[in-house]
Structure formats: C-alpha cells, structure tokens
C-alpha cells in the first residue's frame, strides 16, 4: 500500500486537507443535505446500507473516512460499500478498470524524528512526536473487474433491527425513559428520555433518535467523559450535537437501520462551527466513531451475529 498514498509532511498540507473536507461538508449543509444521512435518502444512492470497509481485510473504516466514502458512493452511484487499493485488487486476482478515478482517504499517525529522540535522551525530557497524515487512494469494488464473486457483491444486512436496539439500551445500563413529547439527555440527572415509537410518523426514526440520545449519554464522566457543559445555542453545544448525530448515523449503518433524512434543525449552528474551525468535522467524526464503538460494544456476538456474519466470511 505504501506506493499508493502521499505522506502529508507539513502543517500547510494538513490545513489544506482540512479545508478541502470542511468546504465539501459546508456545501452539502448549505444545500440542505446532511452528508451522514443523505446516502440513505436519495434516489442516486444505490449502495446497500453498511459501514464502508476494506474488501481485502474486512476492516471497517472510521471517522472522517466514513463520511468521505459514503459521499463518494452516493455521488457516483456505487452499489457496494467495499473498497480496495490498486494493489489489493491485483492481489485478489482482479484489477481496477483503466480510467477509473479513485477516492482519497487518510490515516493519522505520529512519529518522533531521530534528532528529537537524541535530544530527549540527552536532556531526559520526553520526546515530542510530530503528527502527520497519510493519504492513500482506494477504489470501490464497482470500479474493479475479475474480483472473486464474494468480494464483488455486497448483500444488504439482515433485518432484525429493533430487538438489537432494545437489547443495546438495556445493556448500556443508561436510565432510558420512554415518554413525553421530545427527546433529550439530561446530564445532571444522567438519564435519556425519548417519546414512544408510535409518536413518530416513521417509527424507524425512533431507533435513530434513541441512538442519538444514547450518544449524548456516552459523554457522562462514568462513560467516555466528554465535555457536555455547552448551553443550547453555543458552539460547544452544536459540536456535541454534531458528534451525536454522526454517531447515530454510524450506529444505524452498523445495525442495518435505514433512517430517513433528519430535519435540518441544527444545520445553521453546525455551519457556524465548521466555518470557524476547519478541523471540526474531522474531530467530530473521530469522536462519533468512538461513541458508536462504545455503544455497539454492549452487543454480544450472539445478538449481532446476523449483521456480522457476512463480514466474517469475507474477512476469513
């Protein structure tokens, strides 16, 4: 894979990447589209509901890469959520079709230069690591020929969704109350409240809302310990809403839930945050991945085996 990415060495290059991603997300929000929900709400979206993953290893992408690959699949009407590098396609006996345009994803890491290690050893100070991004290009399996049939096609996940969400709610131990006429998480009292499913025009959206509020609850000091002190209307509050909304989308995709597009009641505040900080969407997506992983970690294999069965076969 090393020949198929560019290492971003300078702060200016990293800033350019953040600007590029943030500009695209802002454009979607200004057009009234929510990028992390839109893949399930348009006629152009033909890809099956799933988290993007490596077709070679079965490993799921996370953070900002999920949004990048969902956006590419929607924009270019791919039918699969599986991705490969050029070399991986060859190693599986297939190849990327001539003229196909790849999608750039990123990997964040840190390294310590040799001279810094030397300085630290001489002074006894802690060596300072330098953050960097690796960019590399992946191709959707729709862009490849001659791949094995089990990799070239992606079946939609099975449909026993509601029992999984009910199990997850109980397993988290969160005080989860059903009732009232609006959904919220109360940090001080540490409980979630969501209206009953029958209160929703489309009951499937109850599950999305429940996962959104559970995402907020994950920030409690006894769980993932995020800063939940932002007041309604503040940028800190908008950023936490951004985390919860994206996390809900990630969890829905992992569980096979197909939500409809959310009313854009927070779009204005999100735009304000994104315009001020070009790294906000990257940080929010990274936090959202941590939240989704935390919540889904409460589901034992016997509960989610139907969802993961195919992924396990492909990774074998």
From TrEMBL:
Domain of life according to the entry: Bacteria
Annotated N-terminal domain ranges read: 17-139
Q: InterPro entries recorded for this chain? A: Antirestriction_ArdC, ArdC_N, MPTase-PolyVal
The Polyvalent protein metallopeptidase domain is annotated at: 164-287
An example molecular function term from Gene Ontology annotations: single-stranded DNA binding
**Matches recorded under Pfam families:** ArdcN (PF08401), MPTase-PolyVal (PF18818)
- Write down what this protein is called: Antirepressor
Q: Provide the species name.
A: Bradyrhizobium japonicum
């Amino acid at each position: 894979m090393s020949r198929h990415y560019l290492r971003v060495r300078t702060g200016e290059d990293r800033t350019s990447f953040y600007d590029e991603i943030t500009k695209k997300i802002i454009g979607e929000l200004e057009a009234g589209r929510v990028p992390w929900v839109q893949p399930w709400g348009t006629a152009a979206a033909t890809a099956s509901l799933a988290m993007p993953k490596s077709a070679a290893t079965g490993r799921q992408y996370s953070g900002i890469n999920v949004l990048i690959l969902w956006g590419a699949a929607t924009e270019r009407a791919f039918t699969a959520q599986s991705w490969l590098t050029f070399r991986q396609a060859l190693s599986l006996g297939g190849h990327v079709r001539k003229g196909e345009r790849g999608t750039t994803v990123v990997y964040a890491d840190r390294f310590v230069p040799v001279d810094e290690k030397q300085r630290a050893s001489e002074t006894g100070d802690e060596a300072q690591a330098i953050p960097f991004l690796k960019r590399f290009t992946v191709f959707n399996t729709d862009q490849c020929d001659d791949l094995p049939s089990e990799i070239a096609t992606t079946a939609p996940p099975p449909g026993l969704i509601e029992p999984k969400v009910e199990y997850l709610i109980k397993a988290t131990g969160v005080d989860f109350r059903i009732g009232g006429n609006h959904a919220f998480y109360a940090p001080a009292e540490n409980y979630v409240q969501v209206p009953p499913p029958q209160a929703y025009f489309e009951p499937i959206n109850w599950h999305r809302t429940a996962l959104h509020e559970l995402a907020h609850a994950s920030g409690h000091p006894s769980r993932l310990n995020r800063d939940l002190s932002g007041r309604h209307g503040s940028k800190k509050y908008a950023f936490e809403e951004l985390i919860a909304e994206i996390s809900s989308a990630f969890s829905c995709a992992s569980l096979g839930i197909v939500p409809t597009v959310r009313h854009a009641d927070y779009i204005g505040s999100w735009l304000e945050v994104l315009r001020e900080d070009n790294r906000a969407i990257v940080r929010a997506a990274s936090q959202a991945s941590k939240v989704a992983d935390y919540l889904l970690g409460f589901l034992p294999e016997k509960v989610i085996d139907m969802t993961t069965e195919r992924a396990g076969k492909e990774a074998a």
